Amino acid sequence: MVDRLANSEANTRRISIVENCFGAAGQPLTIPGRVLIGEGVLTKLCRKKPKARQFFLFNDILVYGNIVIQKKKYNKQHIIPLENVTIDSIQDEGDLRNGWLIKTPTKSFAVYAATATEKSEWMNHINKCVSDLLSKSGKTPSNEHAAVWVPDSEATVCMRCQKAKFTPVNRRHHCRKCGFVVCGPCSEKRFLLPSQSSKPVRICDFCYDLLSTGEMTACQSARSDCYSQSPKSSLNDVSDDDDDEDSSD
């Protein structure tokens, strides 16, 4: 089905429309063999609060952006290669329902669909696209992914020292390895995480000690334990900062 659509006029026209909606600031999306599988609005859990984002699923990439005018104009285009993607379902809790994690080596975040059916369709299509890509390339699924960020609202005190209270003066920071919200003194060190940045990034003292001793996976395992042990954390501790003005920390 995808192969038949690849060179069709209808597919080319649909991709061209998506390109035009992002305007000159967006990257070109039309390449030979690329097929637009589907599109829709999903709620993305960002650092400050959940926000509606327009998503486009292609057979090789996932594209999303801010909604300026629905179906007419989007900005802040993000492109995620699907061969690096793994997804995990998230349990429903409160107003956050029908969600799943999108995890890549560069960034990871949670999204929520309007209905359970829509969630199932998105996850099935993403998994099928990833499976087809890996099958064609002969590559193995990625087992490395960036930590999801704990939203600011979930931490009134530093999640490492458990002492420092956050105020307008004592700001929140995020460890790039575990995603915890930490105070300045607990995250003064930097470490090079090549999948996330070409420059050393902020990490907490706990993760720095693990990384410095070569225990590269231990910190991420500790973060994963947080999800499995706490039902609340499995929903509310997943976020990233790419849509917020203050994204440096």
From TrEMBL:
Localization recorded for this chain is:
Early endosome membrane; Endoplasmic reticulum
Q: Does the keyword Metal-binding apply?
A: yes
**Has keyword Transferase?**
no
The GO molecular function terms of this record are: phosphatidylinositol binding; zinc ion binding
Q: Which UniProt keywords apply?
A: Endoplasmic reticulum, Endosome, Membrane, Metal-binding, Protein transport, Transport, Zinc, Zinc-finger
Q: Where is the PH domain?
A: 35-131
Q: What processes does the entry annotate via GO biological process terms?
A: endosome organization; endosome to lysosome transport; protein transport
Q: Span of the secretion signal?
A: none
The family database entries (InterPro entries) matched by this protein are listed as: PH-like_dom_sf (IPR011993), PH_domain (IPR001849), PH_domain-containing_F (IPR051765), PH_Phafin (IPR037871), PLEKHF2_FYVE (IPR047966), Znf_FYVE (IPR000306), Znf_FYVE-rel (IPR017455), Znf_FYVE_PHD (IPR011011)
GO CC terms, sorted: early endosome membrane; endoplasmic reticulum
Compositional bias ranges of the Acidic residues kind: 238-249
What is the predominant subcellular site recorded for this chain?
membrane
Q: Which domain of life is it from?
A: Eukaryota
**Annotated segments matching region Disordered:** 224-249
PROSITE patterns xref list: PH_DOMAIN, ZF_FYVE
Q: Where does the FYVE-type domain lie?
A: 152-212
**How does the record classify its membrane topology?**
Peripheral membrane protein
> What function is annotated for this protein?
May play a role in early endosome fusion upstream of RAB5, hence regulating receptor trafficking and fluid-phase transport. Enhances cellular sensitivity to TNF-induced apoptosis.
Q: Which PANTHER family match?
A: PLECKSTRIN HOMOLOGY DOMAIN-CONTAINING FAMILY F MEMBER 2, PLECKSTRIN HOMOLOGY DOMAIN-CONTAINING FAMILY F MEMBER 2-RELATED
Q: What protein name applies here?
A: Pleckstrin homology domain-containing family F member 2
Give the encoding gene's name.
Answer: Plekhf2
